[in-house]
Structures are given as structure tokens and as C-alpha cells.
Design goal:
Oligomer: single chain
Strand content: 25-35%
CATH superfamily: Glutaredoxin
Helix content: 25-40%
Mean pLDDT: 93
Number of strands: 9
Strand order of the largest sheet: 5-4-3-8-9
Order of helices and strands: EEHEHHEHEHEEEEH
CATH architecture: 3-Layer(aba) Sandwich
CATH topology: Glutaredoxin
Low-confidence stretches: none
């Protein structure tokens, strides 16, 4: 079943690259007591994700935080090493937290997977964004296959 507005996020674990190596991030703790702008991309270093999606959130980070977002996070079905390298190469630094969903557990738990086998990607997370307040989905924006419209930072800014 696909997650919906008003639903609590399921309990899962992400991995984040730190100076000391990969670190586990428990979703229940991560989302508790704050507002997070979370967006998912099919893959790090892929064309739309690298040219538009992540750069848009980096560029609009201050505007989003000015509207009450405590943290901006990007997730993808990639490992923490790839997500860390992608964030570093894109200049995400202190603007966007890169959360690896290496086994696709989060994408599966929220019911937002896609089959990228045609492109050699296997099962991945769909392109989407959500505003999460204290672990509850306040807004959910899921893209149609191949689209990049409703999951952008600009669209999210209009929702806040």
C-alpha cells in the first residue's frame, strides 16, 4: 500500500556518510519533533536527478528553511558511499542530507518503488517529495513516470 497524506512514516533505517564512515539513521528518531523536506530520486548521478532535482533543493535550501523546514533530505536506492560522493560533488554539504536507502527498504515500506530493470537499475525508489512533520506525511508529491514537476523544490515551496 502506498503511503498517503496524514500517514505516519514506517520505521526504517537509512545510512548516511559521515567523516567516520557510514552511520545508521533510524527514521523514527530522524523525523521526530521536526519538519523535514524529503525527496527521493531514482538514482544518484543520473541525468534529471543531477541536473535538476538535487540542485533545485540545494539552491532553494534557505527559502525552504525560511518557511519552517528544519532539514532537507535526499534519499535514493544507492549505498552511502555513492550518496556521500554525489552530495559532495553537487555541493550539498550543509544544505541537503544524503540518506542512502541501499536495500530499498524505505521505498518498499512507503510503497513507492519502481522497476528500473529496463535501464539496468533494478528496483528503485520513485521520484517523489514529501513534507514530514514529526514523522507524519503532511504533503506527498509523486511524479508520473519520466516526469519532473511536482517533486521539485519550487513546487514544495508553494506548498509551505
Amino acid at each position: 500500500m502506498t503511503i498517503a497524506k496524514g500517514d505516519r512514516l514506517p520505521s526504517t533505517t537509512f545510512t548516511k556518510m559521515t567523516e567516520n564512515g557510514p552511520e545508521q539513521v533510524v527514521s523514527d528518531e530522524y523525523f521526530a519533533g521536526r519538519t523535514v523536506a524529503l525527496f527521493s530520486v531514482p538514482g544518484a548521478f543520473t541525468p534529471t536527478c543531477s541536473a535538476k532535482h538535487l540542485p533545485g533543493f540545494i539552491e532553494k535550501a534557505e527559502a525552504l528553511k525560511g518557511k519552517g523546514v528544519d532539514e532537507i533530505a535526499c534519499t535514493a536506492v544507492n549505498d552511502a558511499f555513492v550518496m556521500g560522493a554525489w552530495g559532495k560533488s553537487a555541493g550539498a554539504d550543509d544544505k541537503v542530507t544524503m540518506l542512502a536507502d541501499g536495500n530499498g527498504s524505505f521505498a518498499q515500506a512507503v510503497g513507492l518503488t519502481m522497476d528500473g530493470s529496463k535501464f539496468g537499475l533494478g528496483e528503485r525508489g520513485q521520484r517523489f517529495s514529501m513534507i514530514v512533520k514529526d514523522g507524519v506525511v503532511e504533503e506527498l508529491n509523486v511524479e508520473a513516470p519520466g516526469d519532473f514537476k511536482v517533486s521539485s523544490a519550487d513546487f514544495m515551496l508553494e506548498q509551505l
